[in-house]
Design goal:
Elements: H1 17-64, E1 69-76, E2 82-86, E3 91-94, E4 110-113, E5 120-124, H2 130-135, H3 152-167, H4 169-175, E6 182-186, H5 193-203, E7 207-212, H6 213-216, H7 223-237, E8 241-246, H8 260-277, E9 284-288
Parallel strand pairs: 6-9, 7-8
Antiparallel strand pairs: 1-2, 1-4, 2-3, 4-5
Helix pairs in contact: 3-4, 7-8
Family: Belongs to the AAA ATPase family.
InterPro entries: 26S_Proteasome_ATPase, AAA+_ATPase, ATPase_AAA_core, NA-bd_OB-fold, P-loop_NTPase, Prot_ATP_ID_OB_2nd
Pfam families: AAA (PF00004), Prot_ATP_ID_OB_C (PF16450)
């Protein structure tokens, strides 16, 4: 009798299609995130390459282009012709591009001239002395009147003299009085004179030009007067602007032992300062800081 053996087979478990689909989905999400990250990096690199490409294009154009002559308009002869003085000395009667607004071509305007035809090609900003340019980079800071203590009366007078004519000029026109051109802050050191000037410039959102008067006093006749003129011209071009002149007594000093040359230089600077600021005794106000902080 033959023995029969029956082998019992264990069934192989089948993978659930739903679980497999979820795993594939998660894997694809991870791959998608990786591809997104690489795409973002490639876009950043492409942006940097575009910037470098534009810079290279501009450099090539600058190397291939012909330079222009810097000149200054002296006088307008006709509607189309102007007398221009070049920086190298000669004067020319030149024309102007049609696209330019000829009403802006006044006496003293700096322009760029074509090398061959000497035609006025474009306007140029006013030439600024480096010393004056450095003065304009003084940041007044975010200072409010509430941060200043013990100077309530001085703040009121200062706002009346400086802030009110700039924010509400129609009040002075209605009354028929000339608004003040400036004021004199005097008092011992440390009483808040500079702090008040910074607060005014910060509150009216004006440009702040801090000038150390002792730095613009020069031994050569006319140099200090030129700096003062350029300083006020720069302020006019960047209105509204608050000019704070520290150590103002350095301009009007007068020493008995000084030579005649120094005395003449001081008087010349004082007259230039008065003419540039367009101030008179009637429109100047004095604000005392003697109470201090």
């Amino acid at each position: 009798m033959a023995a029969t053996a029956v082998a019992q087979l264990t069934p192989v478990p089948q993978e659930n299609p739903r679980d497999k689909a979820l795993q594939d989905y998660k894997k694809k999400i991870l791959e998608h995130k990786e591809i997104e990250g690489r795409l973002k990096e490639i876009r950043e690199q492409l942006k940097e390459f575009n910037i470098q490409y534009e810079k290279s294009e501009n450099d090539l154009k600058a190397l291939q282009s012909v330079g222009q002559i810097v000149g200054e308009v002296l006088k307008q002869l006709t509607e189309e012709k102007f007398i221009v003085k070049a920086t190298n000395g000669p004067r020319y009667v030149v024309g102007c591009r049609r696209q330019l607004d000829k009403t802006k071509l006044k006496s003293g305007t700096r322009v760029a001239l074509d090398m061959t035809t000497l035609t006025i090609m474009r306007y140029l900003p006013r030439e600024v002395d480096p010393l004056v340019y450095n003065m304009s980079h003084e940041d007044p800071g975010d200072i409010s009147y509430s941060m200043i203590g013990g100077l309530g009366e001085q703040i009121r007078e200062l706002r009346e003299v400086i802030e009110l004519p700039l924010l509400n000029p129609e009040l002075f026109q209605r009354v028929g009085i000339t608004p003040p051109k400036g004021c004199l802050l005097y008092g011992p050191p440390g009483t808040g004179k500079t702090l008040l000037a910074r607060a005014v410039a910060s509150q009216i959102e004006a440009n702040f030009l801090k000038v150390v008067s002792s730095a613009i006093v020069d031994k050569y006749i006319g140099e200090s007067a030129r700096l003062i003129r350029e300083m006020f011209n720069y302020a006019r071009d960047h209105q509204p602007c608050v000019i704070f002149m520290d150590e103002i007594d350095a301009i009007v000093w007068l020493v008995k032992t000084a030579s005649t040359l120094k005395n003449y230089n001081s008087v010349h600077e004082t007259r230039t300062f008065a003419a540039a600021s367009d101030t008179t005794n009637e429109t100047n106000r004095r604000v005392s800081n003697s109470s201090g902080l």
